[in-house]
Design a protein that fits this description.
With 234 residues, the protein is an alpha/beta fold. 42% of the residues lie in helices and 10% in strands. It has a 5-stranded parallel sheet, sandwiched between helices. Helix 4 crosses helix 5 and helix 6 crosses helix 8. It binds zinc ion (ZN). The site of zinc ion (ZN) has 9 residues, from helix 8. Zinc ion binds next to helix 8.
Length: 234
């Protein structure tokens, strides 16, 4: 028996490894005709991210909406929107309480609020985000308790039954790679973007590149982005 009112999902797609994996996770879970993507143009220094997100949405065959938010760039003070600040390299030391300068304060709270507003207008109950609290830089808006609190606020504030999904929340980077294989995201990952320095092929030495490479190495899988760049000789 088919469901007469299939539930729709909206995926926050940045063009990075994690959100790309989540897009394919959503396609598998909700079905090709019930998934859309939203991408935020928030003044990120590396515009290549937006190109990647566009390519991946097209490859996945989903409708993509690009929403502009220029306020983070106006606020400044972080390495992802401010040209004057170089991203910190290397992983955080254990016990290091300071957030790296790649933290954009409030970013996920704002993204998910706008995404929830779009989902509301589209009749999509499910919001999917690639945030994870394991193995990362300790961004507080990527933690499960933040998402739970935000979900409650969105439900109350919009009188809706919105559900936030973070399928990568408790996965290591290696487990995320394995999930990407299971949901058929590998081709799309060859067009994804992770490097904090905005380089294609990826620079290989920034914190984001190191984390990505470590995940693929631990999963015993070649990174399709690195493979594609190598084959194209650039
Ligand atoms: Zn890099």
């Amino acid at each position: 028996m088919t469901d007469p009112t299939p539930e729709k999902a909206l995926v926050v797609l940045s063009g990075g490894q994690d959100s790309t994996t989540c897009l394919y996770w959503a396609l598998q879970r909700f079905g090709q005709d019930h998934v859309e993507a939203v991408t935020f143009d928030y003044g990120q220094r590396h515009r290549v991210e937006l190109d990647c997100a566009r390519k991946i949405a097209a490859l996945a065959g989903v409708r993509q909406t690009v929403l502009p938010i220029d306020t983070f760039a106006a606020i400044g003070g972080n390495a992802l929107t401010d040209d004057a600040i170089a991203p910190e390299s290397g992983a955080r030391a254990d016990g290091d309480q300071a957030l790296p300068n790649t933290f954009v304060p409030g970013r996920n709270l704002i993204f998910l609020s706008f995404a929830a507003a779009l989902a509301y207008t589209r009749g999509a109950r499910h919001l999917v985000t690639g945030v994870a609290q394991t193995d990362y830089s300790g961004y507080p808006d990527c933690r499960e308790n933040t998402l739970k609190a935000l979900e409650l606020a969105l439900r109350l504030g919009m009188d809706s039954r919105v559900e936030l999904h973070a399928p990568l929340m408790h996965l290591s980077k290696a487990q995320t790679v394995t999930l990407a294989q299971q949901v058929g995201a590998m081709e799309a990952l060859s067009f994804s973007h992770t490097c904090y320095n905005g380089e294609v092929p990826p620079c290989g030495h920034c914190a984001a590149c190191e984390l990505r490479a470590k995940g693929f190495a631990e999963a015993g899988v070649a990174d399709p982005l690195v493979e594609r760049c190598r084959q194209q000789g650039n």
